UniProtKB/TrEMBL annotation:
It comes from Microbacterium murale. Pfam families: Bac_transf, CoA_binding_3. InterPro entries: Bact_transf, EPS_sugar_tfrase. Keywords: Membrane, Transferase, Transmembrane, Transmembrane helix. This is Exopolysaccharide biosynthesis polyprenyl glycosylphosphotransferase. Residues 332-519 form the Bacterial sugar transferase domain.
Amino acid sequence: MALSGEAILTPRLRRQNRSTTGALPTAIAAAPPLTRAVPTTAESAVVAAQAGRWQRDYAWRLLLTDSLIIVGVVFGAQALRFGQSNADLYIPGVTGAGFDVAYTAVSAVFVLAWICGLRLYDTRDAKVVGSGWAEYRRVVDASIRVFGLLAIFAFLLHIDVARAYLLLALPAGVTALVGSRWLWRRWLAAQRDEGRFLSHAVIVGEHAKSLHIAREMQRDSTSGLVITGALTERGPGVELLPGIPVVGSLEDAIAGTELVGVDAVVYSGSDLISPAQLRQFGWDLQSRNVDLIVAAALTDIAGPRIHARPVAGLSLIHVDYPAFTGSRYAAKRAFDVVVSSLALVALSPLFLVLAVMVRRDGGPALFRQRRVGLEGRRFTMLKFRTMVTDAEQRLPDLLAASEGNGVLFKMRSDPRVTSLGQKLRQLSLDELPQLVNVLRGDMSLVGPRPPLMSEVDTYEKWVQRRLLVKPGITGLWQISGRSDLSWDDSIRLDLYYVENRSLTSDVAILWRTLRVVLQRRGAY
């Protein structure tokens, strides 16, 4: 879809557009940019129908998959618990007399309630599927609440439902549902790489604010939201970013021009647009079935910390501050101790083998280095040695060949790295001794990258927030590019983790770390 004509699209977006919705409507494609009249209702209806088709198709696929999983899990739990016998559930009556209901009928009601629960919690809403954690969280919440309501219902009516039947169905069902959503996301991401299943949007607002929003949105390639143009106070003739032309002015946006063929409008904010104009603008978009997305100036804040608070007709955004103490800290520490202890016991034979192999060149098995941890406290970080024994002495001669940015030393073909060390780095096996640091309390399993003292000396004040939590063996930097990341991207990811960390995100990062390590991406 184009904004006001296919001419403003890049060749790549033009191909993506045709593969998603077919050829452009003739009335839209023929319209000259910046001069066409306000789009008619018929034109908007055509574009809206094309834009929403893939979302409806995808939702139906999710519904079919969810239904098959729930049916299989519930009736599978029944078969495992009762076998082939015709088991009945006794339901007490009000006057003392009761009646029996076959568990097959109970399972059918259970299936229907579960499917309805997923629907009521909008687990297939186009706004949450495909990216982010909201989809998974809604699936889990809906499932647990359905089980909870059924348990309350059974308790109040004194119905003795077989516990093993429920204990088999809940974890198996939740796991299968989340797993299927993850597989569908992989499929959706592949389709989006081919230019399909995309939503096209324009940014409306002040040029500087729109530039910031566009840059941040381009960081996330999984959202499926493609910015195809912008409308700012500078008017047409310039580019917001390469590939994102400014196709009109703010007056064009308010008048309704340049908004044909888009699925959404991202409003970045402008003092030139009054609240009354913005309200009318939203009504106009609603009549064309175009979504209005208001982008907050505050970035890198995760959804659970943001709450909409209506006050006197205003939509105020309440932002929770990150918690670094209390029950969340205790839960994270307990998780670190349990997992690191079990890992050290399970991996002790591997530790012994690697230690012997590293010592074959005559040097020590472990490399010890002073790093900076929580609140600036220094500690000794442990790693399997991957370089020659005089690596520190040879560093000054290599600084000129650094591929870093002046803060971190990076070199893809560092001559100080041994052949065994290269393999250890690719598989991140050299990091395993840091499990001892985790058990000691110097580090965590997941957290910001542990910095050198020389790095901390260069920190600006805002970067020092990295030190509000313990550094981690892995983190967002590990699953987002590892050594290929720039300094700015590394800082941004670490600060995002500091602001939005949770035990759930830690588990997800550990899982994704395993995948990244096995693929050997970005390690050198």
